[in-house]
């Protein structure tokens, strides 16, 4: 395989750090660009000694002039509490960030991957969600900075593709979890595990009947890499695990698997919180030969092990 110079934006985040690791393992040079808003040096500390790895503090809303062969655009906070902290910056990251990275791809003729999201489907009226479903998004609600920002980024990707022939790959990623999520990340899997391990109440928003479909990080990274390596699959293509659970089932599973004495504490359901979500992955199966392999119970066990170590202060393992 040819050795490539690969840029990963958001590379010091949860998914980005696993992707950097995978690309280095394949023998590529990796330039990790991150403004450390939700990511951190700690996530890539174990890669810093590798001469093929370079870490650059940079905000993708500003132009970036580097010479590269491939781009993975992952920069964007993914947890509702973080992307709603500074919604204007979230829109800028999605829109200006996409324009800058597409401009870079256009100039260098680099193939470019976009980490889009199941949130483009909003609170879906069609279940499970195929890529052909156009979504049900509130454009003026508190989640819009993320949902509409990601939708606009998809538009930009397809316009740069049609107008300038940029070689694009767009994945719609469904809820993904695993080791190296931050304990204050705010997303449901890390919240529940950390709360259960500490013996704190497990915070269930709403009545817990809303559903999500959880994909383990290792499976997701495999899907991203296959999409990037495929000959001509531009996407958009759903990547996620179609096994669907209610959030209450997740809370009960985490309490059981941690052996915790935590009780469930009910909190109000946030505005515009989607009631159901499950990917239709027929396209990923047909075009990439991809489907997830790691079941929720196994992935949660690995994630619990990570947080147990992190809460004890032992360095987190570098691989899932
Ligand atoms: P994360 O918050 O751990 O990682 C995002 C990274 O982007 C962080 O390191 C952050 O510091 C960086 N970043 C944010 N704004 C930036 C900016 N303006 N310039 C440079 N860096 C910036 O989240 P994650 O779960 O690793 O998500 C990575 C990508 O995948 C995001 O684009 C997210 O929208 C997408 N995604 C994730 C999921 C999921 O379930 N994990 C689902 C759908 C889509
Ligand atoms: N850009 C960048 N790096 C590059 C090339 C472009 O960051 O190597 C940014 C630059 O800020 C530009 C944006 O990408 O405004 C869009 O580039 P494009 O060529 O599409 O537009 P233009 O330069 O005409 O505004
Ligand atoms: N959630 C919850 N308790 C928490 C965090 C989240 O019940 O401590 C719920 C949240 O309301 C949503 C689901 O879990 O219905 C998934 O939330 P997350 O923020 O992980 O992802 P997203 O809503 O973006 O899918």
TrEMBL record:
This is UDP-glucuronate decarboxylase. It comes from Paracoccus fontiphilus. It is found in: Golgi apparatus, Golgi stack membrane. Pathway: Nucleotide-sugar biosynthesis; UDP-alpha-D-xylose biosynthesis; UDP-alpha-D-xylose from UDP-alpha-D-glucuronate: step 1/1. Its EC number is 4.1.1.35. Its cofactor is NAD(+). GO terms for molecular function: UDP-glucuronate decarboxylase activity. Belongs to the NAD(P)-dependent epimerase/dehydratase family. UDP-glucuronic acid decarboxylase subfamily. CDD domains: UGD_SDR_e (cd05230). Gene3D superfamilies: NAD(P)-binding Rossmann-like Domain (3.40.50.720).
């Amino acid at each position: 395989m040819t050795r490539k110079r690969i840029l990963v934006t958001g590379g010091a985040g949860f998914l980005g750090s696993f992707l950097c690791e995978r690309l280095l393992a394949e023998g590529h040079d990796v330039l990790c660009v991150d403004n450390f808003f939700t990511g951190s040096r700690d996530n890539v500390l174990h890669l810093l000694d590798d001469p093929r790895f370079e870490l650059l503090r940079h905000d993708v809303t500003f132009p970036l002039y580097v010479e590269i062969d491939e781009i993975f655009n992952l920069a964007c906070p993914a947890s509702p509490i973080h992307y709603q902290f500074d919604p204007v910056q979230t829109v800028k990251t999605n829109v200006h960030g996409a324009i800058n990275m597409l401009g870079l791809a256009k100039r260098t003729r680099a193939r470019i991957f976009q980490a889009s999201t199941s949130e483009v489907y909003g609170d879906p009226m069609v279940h499970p969600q195929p890529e052909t479903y156009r979504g049900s998004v509130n454009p003026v609600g508190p989640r819009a900075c993320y949902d509409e920002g990601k939708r606009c980024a998809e538009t930009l990707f397809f316009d740069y593709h049609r107008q300038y022939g940029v070689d694009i790959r767009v994945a719609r990623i469904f809820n993904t979890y695993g080791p190296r999520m931050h304990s204050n990340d705010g997303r449901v899997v890390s919240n529940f595990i950390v709360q259960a391990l500490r013996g704190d109440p497990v915070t269930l928003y709403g009545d817990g009947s809303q559903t999500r479909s959880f994909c383990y990080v290792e499976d997701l990274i495999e899907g991203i890499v296959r999409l990037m390596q495929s000959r001509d699959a531009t996407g958009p293509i759903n990547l996620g695990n179609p096994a669907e659970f209610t959030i209450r089932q997740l809370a009960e599973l985490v309490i059981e698997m941690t052996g915790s004495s935590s009780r469930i504490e009910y909190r109000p359901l946030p505005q515009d919180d989607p009631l159901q979500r499950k990917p239709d992955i027929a396209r990923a199966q047909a075009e990439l030969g991809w489907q997830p392999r790691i079941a929720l119970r196994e992935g949660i066990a690995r994630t619990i092990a990570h947080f147990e170590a992190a809460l004890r202060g032992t360095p987190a393992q570098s691989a899932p």
